Amino acid sequence: MNHLIRNIRWLGYEGILINEKPIVYINPYKLAFPDIGDLILFTDNRPEHCSPDDAKWLRKGSTVIVGPAGCAEKFQGDVRTIKAGDSISVKDAGIDVFPVFESKGFEQTKTDGVGLKIKFSNGFSVFFPGDSAMFPEMQAGMADVLLIPVKIDDQYRLEEAAAIVNQINPRLTIPINWDGKKESVPKIEEFKKICNSEVEVLKPKP
Fold this sequence. Notes:
Layout: H1 2-5, E1 8-12, E2 15-19, E3 23-26, E4 39-41, H2 52-55, E5 64-67, H3 69-72, E6 79-81, E7 87-90, E8 93-104, E9 107-119, E10 125-128, E11 145-149, H4 155-168, E12 172-176, H5 185-193
Parallel strand pairs: 3-4, 4-5, 5-6, 10-11, 11-12
Antiparallel strand pairs: 1-2, 2-3, 7-8, 8-9, 9-10
């Protein structure tokens, strides 16, 4: 599975760098050594997910910003506003936009955030569902790599994240949004054990 992760870097929090063509950032935040990106994608309006101060170091004249309205309005230049249900093509990458649902007991509420499936011209695909509960559009085999937020201090959310992994059954899963600390590794190992597909634990590299 090394070929699936060689161009993926977890930046801490829910930040991701996918060093394919185009070079894609997702939710960059507090980066130590930023590099220029072709696409910068945002999934909601929370400060740690939509940070213009971080994005400014990643932009060049042709960089495209993509995000939901509440985030997109914070930027100028080539900015694409997206909402759940959209499918767009930017710089040879196809982006399908999914809703994000929050669980409240037995009910689910749609949030202002979005999930993103990115398909590159070489056929490689990545799905980032954001902090979403499971929903019907999460289909088996929908992406090669799943980037899944894992809250290790919340057993319910940890098990819910694993259920999403098992529903989608990607070729590889990368857990993100945990603290990366040594004392947290047992919880991540627990997460791996309840997933039915391969899980690769990366260290955050901001």
